[in-house]
Amino acid sequence: MDYLIDLVIIGLSVGMVYALVALGISLIYSGLDIVHFAHGEIYMIGAFIGLVLFQRLALPYIPTLLLAIILTGLLGIVLERLFYRRLTRAGGGYTVAGMGMIIAGFGMSIVLQNVAFLIWGAKPLPFPVPFGRPIELGNLTLPMSYVWIVAAALLLMFSLNLLLRKTRLGLAMRAVAYNKDIAYLSGVNVPLMISLIFGIGCALGAAAGVLIGPINYVQVLMGIGVLIKAFAAAVVGGFGSLPGAILGGLLVGVVESLGAGFVSGTYKDVYAFILLIVVLLLKPSGLLGVEAKLKA
Amino acid sequence: MSLSARLGYEKRQGRVLEINDLIGGYGSVQILNGASLRIGRGQIVALLGGNGTGKSTLLKAISGLLRPWSGSIVFDGSRIDGLRPDRIVRRGLVQVTQGKEAFPGMTVEENLSLGAHVERDRAKRAASLERVYSYFPMLKEKRGQFSGTLSGGQLQMVCIGRGLMSNPKMIMLDEPSAALAPQVVLDIFRTIHRISRDGMTVLLVEQNVRMALLLAQYGYVIRDGSIHIEGPADQLLHDDNVRLAYLGGTVANREATLRR
Predict the structure, then answer these.
(1) Would you give the DSSP letter of residue B246?
(2) Whose CA is closest to B205, among B94, B79, B56?
(3) The pTM of the whole model exceeds 0.80
(4) Contact of B153 with B177, CB cutoff 8 Å
(5) For residue A19, what are the contacts with CB-CB under 8 A and spacing of at least 6?
(6) Taking 50 as the threshold, does the pLDDT of residue A295 lie above it?
(7) Is residue B219 within 8 Å of B206, Cβ to Cβ?
(8) Which residue in the set A178, A179, A185 is minimally distant from B85, CB to CB?
(9) 3-state secondary structure of A109
(10) In CATH, what number does B3-92+206-259 get?
């Protein structure tokens, strides 16, 4: 029984990381109509930025997390302005530019991997954060790193919800996600909102990277596996749906953890896709999937 | 109308919008073929024409959704052609699109608030909201409902209300009566009249020609992307060309025509 609870807790905390990345992918998809295939690399770059801040600049963990989120968000805005914007324009406004956008995403992913390789090398680097002693709850011992992940991720999701639901800016972003012409005619600076949406998506990826860093090593290729899991999570929850991304992330995390614990750890990466296939067979639009028209 | 009469009319009213020789379209398809029109401050001006004559394209060119190829658009004393749509909204010119496009995942109040995006002052946004609710009391009752649950007439009110939220100098309405019940159309037209009486300039694009001309002071008839006929509304209402082309005449007229 304790073993089961342990697995669920590990699954939930890793699931939170998937959820954050999936949230970024879904946010970018709803705002820009593009599937951002370089999002795993944004997560990786975010983790490295966090590592630099933590080790070289010797910042405490919370400022490290916040600063890494902000810096990666800004990097995202620069990437959107410099590269993706040209492609969306070429596709006739901010709509799907088809194959070009997908290939551009993969290209960006390769470029970012190699840039990171040139700066930080190929060796996995440790991200040692002294979180202190594990929390003891009856028979359970919770490592603090997991508690941190869950708490920080929940806080970020809560803030994102607050931003989108309660602020003038959030309302404008939702409008842009639903219909860019009507957003324009309501006086919304659509290109600026698109940059912000992309930046926030990247910031969420960076948060995931900095949170997982202390558990795993930080390395150049860490984004690939996470991208695929987060992608599965987004599809399981319903692509473009933000609550769906969170639910999907947690489900993928827990299913993976239970599978690894009870069946076999060797096939750890398979369980997420079994879940994906089952969900797609039963509900092709994803668990919380909505008609595209309702995504705002 | 004679030139001197038109100049007199313009002098009395003062122009808020002046469009000269506007040419534009989608891709390589030219829709607007040198459209020119003038709108006096505080007026209701009707823009009439059948399907595919360029009415909506002209509105999109004015509101900035479509960049005109050539020609000029002067609003309130300065050129606005080529500006981004949100900049044009900031200058006080708002378009309400055809098709009652509200955001179904947002409540009525959120939909309306979005229209006041350009206003940073919270108190002024609240005042705008109350003003819109005074035009459409129905929306106040439904403020917390998702707009996806509204009827067509209520959706149209949300869209017009959203357009009014930024307190524009001029509002352009694209077929506000389309696909609505006659009673609702009457309500909407009554409200448009009130909005105009409160000082706003209105450009009304309509298929419902008779109603539009009864409400407007001046009218333009667009055909093949340029202005075909123009004149004071009461004159257009009795103009034989307009009647034949768009009003269809009365039953008695039609029977008389058939007998001939």
Answers:
(1) I
(2) B56
(3) yes
(4) no
(5) A153, A157, A233, A245, A246, A247, A248, A249, A250, A253
(6) no
(7) no
(8) A185
(9) helix
(10) 3.40.50.300
The verdict on a CB contact (< 8 Å) between B114 and A181 is no
Q: Is B65 on the interface with A (CB under 8 A)?
A: yes
Which residues on chain B are in Cβ contact (under 8 Å) with A294? 104-105, 148
Neighboring chain A residues of B104 at a CB cutoff of 8 Å:
293-294, 296
- Output b/e per residue, B227-249; b: 16+ Cβ within 10 A: bbbbbbbeebbebeebbebbbee
Element (H, E) at B244: none
The Cα B135–Cα A172 span in angstroms is: 24
Q: Is A159 exposed, middle or buried (0-12, 13-18, 19+ CB in 10 A)?
A: exposed
DSSP letter (8 states) at residue B32: E
CA angle A228, A48, A249 (to 5 degrees): 30
A188 contacts in chain B (CB < 8 Å): 86, 114, 117
B162 to chain A: closest CA residue: A186
Tell me, yes or no, if B169 comes closer than 8 A to chain A by beta carbon. no
Tokens 């019940």, residue located: B181
Per-residue pLDDT, B241: 76
Among B103, B117, B166, select the one facing A178 at the smallest CB separation. Answer: B103
A185, B94 in Cβ contact below 8 A? yes
The Cα A70–Cα A63 span in angstroms is 10
Domains of chain A: 2-294 (1.10.3470)
Mapped onto helix, strand or coil, the DSSP state of residue B52 is coil
Amino acid at position B232, single letter = P
In the numeric block, which tokens belong to residue B170? 């001029």
Ranges of H-type helices in chain A? 2-32, 39-55, 61-79, 85-90, 99-120, 144-166, 168-178, 180-185, 190-212, 222-237, 242-258, 268-282
pLDDT tens, residue by residue, B178-203 = 888 889 999 999 999 999 999 999 99
Q: Are strands B218-223 and B15-26 parallel, antiparallel or unpaired?
A: unpaired
Q: What ipTM was predicted for this assembly?
A: 0.86
| Inter-CA distances, A182 with A177, B102, B128, Å | 11, 8, 19
Give CA separation, A96 vs A30, A33, A158, A206, in Å.
Answer: 11, 6, 29, 25
Q: What angle is formed at CA A245 by the lines to CA A126 and CA B110, rounded to 5 degrees?
A: 125
Please report, for residues A84, B31, B221, B229, the alpha-carbon distance to residue B224 in angstroms, rounded to integers and kept in the order given: 38, 7, 10, 12
**For residue range A119-132, what is the model confidence (pLDDT) as tens digits?**
999 899 988 888 87
Q: How far apart are CA A26 and CA A29, in angstroms?
A: 5
